[in-house]
């Protein structure tokens, strides 16, 4: 009797250095920033910038923060992604095979696809673990999968989940994590800080010039701006705020992690570090901070939001800054991943 072929699930996240030491961080930054969807400059200029400036000067600085991030299990982005893979596999059972691939460094997308090929899967469901679509994150992961699979003799049927900014399970998980803090202590404001991207990349992805980076464009989420990264961030925030019963004046959306100093490009605004430094003057003293551009804790959540922003806020007169951890292995999140697969 013929057995039902397996369905492959490929989880993709960004990737992290193999170790926090300078040579590994440099190797990671080189691979990451030489990607033309991340630094969208002509290749010769990108090469000069990455090899002449970023790799030599940024790698030692980044290595220091990676050392702060690393714990006994290694880099949280990697081990939480592995936990998500394992828990999703358990939930889906024997008709599925779940593989994990990182866009940069290890385990690579190539190795994950090879694992699925060896399992002779009939179909692959690719989930790029970035809630809000951006060319620099989801776009490049999708392209990488297509580049590899296009060379296979037998190309299986493939579907891509390329954004879930408004997925009810995703929203509920963030709200559940937030609520666990709100039940224990009082906050007078809520900050939703998202990874930034250069403004130019928003304009390039805009449908017929609809997105002009104004609040008018990003204050609603509709058919025209559904791939606008900034509009998706605002939509995630509105939905979480609604779930938590927050009024509009109780929360602020802002964007972090800009590499602007090096490439002299404006990034999407407002900038988190600037916004939070003004808050204590306005009487905001106790903040709960969310990082909903990520589904696993990483350098950007633990170090940037959890430690660096806390320092900025407290130096400006704030009293309490609390990071709400990422989705990691939250049971609602694992159920949400399972639902995404079953719906696909
Ligand atoms: C939300 C998804 C991400 C987008 C969009 C994104 C765009 C983007 N990032 C850089 C530059 C850097 N990002 C770095 C770290 C980092 N970025 C993401 C996700 C997105 N980036 C994650 C999950 C992480 C953390 C990785 C980890 O190991 O924990 C870094 C490295 C750290 C550092 O040196 O500061 C850089 C550099 C650009 C230029 C960009 C868009 C154009
Ligand atoms: Fe990044
Ligand atoms: Fe927009």
TrEMBL record:
UniProt-listed CDD domains: Ferrochelatase_C, Ferrochelatase_N
E.C. no: 4.98.1.1
InterPro entries: Ferrochelatase (IPR001015), Ferrochelatase_C (IPR033644), Ferrochelatase_N (IPR033659)
Reaction equation(s) it catalyzes: heme b + 2 H(+) = protoporphyrin IX + Fe(2+); Fe-coproporphyrin III + 2 H(+) = coproporphyrin III + Fe(2+)
Matches recorded under SUPFAM superfamilies: Chelatase
Binding sites annotated in the UniProt record for Fe(2+): 195, 300
Pathway(s) per entry: Porphyrin-containing compound metabolism; protoheme biosynthesis; protoheme from protoporphyrin-IX: step 1/1
BP-aspect Gene Ontology terms: heme biosynthetic process
Alphabetical keyword list: Cytoplasm, Heme biosynthesis, Iron, Lyase, Metal-binding, Porphyrin biosynthesis
UniProt subcellular location: Cytoplasm
Chief location of this protein within or outside the cell: cytoplasm
Function statement: Catalyzes the ferrous insertion into protoporphyrin IX.
Family: Belongs to the ferrochelatase family.
Protein name: Ferrochelatase
